[in-house]
Amino acid sequence: ISVLFFPPQVLLLAWAEDLECVPGFQQKVFYIEKPFEFTEDQLVLNLKFDDCKGNHKLNFEVSNPDFTVEGDGSLVALRNVSEVGRALFVRARSEHAEDTAEIFLVGANEKHGALKEILKLEGNSGIPRQKRAILATPILIPENQRPPFPRQVGKVIRSEGTEGAKFRLSGKGVDQDPKGIFRINEVTGDVSVTRTLDREAIANYELEVEVTDLSGKTIDGPVRLDIFVIDQNDNRPMFKEGPYVGHVMEGSPTGTTVMRMTAFDADDASTDNALLRYNILKQTPTKPSPNMFYIDPEKGDIVTVVSPVLLDRETMESPKYELVIEAKDMGGLDVGLTGTATATILIDDKNDHPPEFTKKEFQATVKEGVTGVIVNLTVGDRDDPVTGAWRAVYTIINGNPGQSFEIHTNPQTNEGMLSVVKPLDYEISAFHTLLIKVENEDPLIPDIAYGPSSTATVQITVEDVNEGPVFHPNPMTVTKQENIPIGSVVLTVNATDPDTLQHQTIRYSVHKDPAGWLEINPTNGTIGTTAVLDRESPYVQDNVYTALFLAIDSGNPPATGTGTLHITLEDVNDNVPSLYPTLAKVCDDAKDLRVVVLGASDKDLHPNTDPFKFELSKQSGPEKLWRINKLNNTHAQVILLQNLKKANYNIPISVTDSGKPPLTNNTELKLQVCTCKKSKMDCSATDALHISLTLILLSLLSLLCKSF
């Protein structure tokens, strides 16, 4: 190991002029070339401590428990160590003095720079540029110290004295939160701690020391003072990530990793105080072996240690194991603190047992014409329920050519529910035989296969029931003209009885005849009319009239079949056209004498509707008052030939359709001639004369004139 000591001539030059004997380590800082590994009992370096009064009751403390300092000052490794960190601190204490030495571990390329930085050489003379006035070596304090307090833990030394000078300490732990933990004797430089320290709360404190005059002005410093809290084993290992649940497949090879248990220790991770070792304290249940699992003491990995044969879920007392895991610090030594947690290990099922029917043959009885579940097929499976290795899948492999049967799995019981989905006919087949197989949702493991017990036969007996007669065809359709004579034959229906072996008779009746137009012969099924068929009736939809008929057999009890008849009605010209509107109004001084546009409609169908013919009936009187002009096939316009006096007039109009023969509607358009002032129309009948009365008076006057 390369150790960089301060050259003796440098130390003499630095301190001879200040003190003849300075209590403490004769050399406080060392730089060591870091080896790959420190070996057990290896001498690292020799430390020299002198309290200038005989070193009575001298003892040493090292920041790393892997090292110790013997009585002669030899720093020795206690065991093989590869991970040390960047520095070691050695605390020495006697009756009269205490001090700390720093050993820094550096690489080979760091040695020269480190020495130059420590000595702060000026040029090549090897003489320090300035001497150090305040000596503030690091202080090491064990955590959890007991009262009394305050307790002296170190000392700051000033190499040159000034009358009235005082030491002043500052930083986190003094005048910054947490305040008041440390204090310094202004005169002697003794550093004291006032309370118990907790390394897990604060591991180190960086303070500053300076020297002031009586007025408080700084005359030297500040110099950094490091205080390190030495870890004590005061924290138990804790399992923080629970619950801990692991899974392992049954039949897994020996040594299969199940899960990892990891505990946390708040103590210094670089010491044995946080060096954990794991152990299994208890296993529940203890069968088939009390040692089913093993835990790696360093990593915390839990692995199986039994043979795959014993790791059989179906033969175990329980597929769930609980392990009480202990984590102990101090590398597992008896003095270590412990923490425990429970690990739950579940043995997962694999599909190593095929499902098997509880019997080779099942029986079922079903009435013809009925659908639904007819039998539940039961199976046994030793695998874990509600898993794909247990859930059954059923298949009909023979005897179902017409797809009349289906089978589904009951998710609660795992039974196969065999159903009829298409009604069975006793007259076609009274017996059915189905061959059914059962498998699992998950595939079987390679060395397991489905056997004969995974298939079963179902014998199904169909019971005869009295079925209702069936109309042929159904629905029935026929086309007839509306208005055919009452008593006309519409259709003769045909119904047969499916129960061909029972030789039953059939009678017919009307079931639903909304308009009451039809009747049926109960024996031969002939349907005739009892009223005139009207295509324009509200009971006819889209030219089709619908009625229902019954066919009833002679069984006990009798069975009924229903037939539907659709009659398509052809149109006949049996409706006169209608005119709209029937009322019109016009001002007596109107300039536009086009009174109204008339439209015509007809309930019949083309060609018995438009084009319509519009005509005015013959006008009486000395002169014509209006005319009518055709606009198109369905509309015409009434025009006044002159302004008329205020009155009500009835204009006779005839409208004729295009049917063969055509039908004419003679009607009247009521025309009101009104007084119009300031956009208001007054159509009151006061002093108004009906046109018919006017015509009568004119006729009478004409006759009187002729008589004279």
Automatic annotation (TrEMBL):
GO cellular component, one term: cytoplasm
Signal peptide: 1-16
Domain Cadherin: 166-239, 240-357, 358-471, 472-579, 578-689
Main location: membrane
GO biological process, one term: homophilic cell adhesion via plasma membrane adhesion molecules
InterPro entries per the UniProt record, alphabetical: Cadherin (IPR039808), Cadherin-like_dom (IPR002126), Cadherin-like_sf (IPR015919), Cadherin_CS (IPR020894), Cadherin_pro_dom (IPR014868)
Superkingdom, natural source: Eukaryota
Name of this chain's protein: Cadherin-13
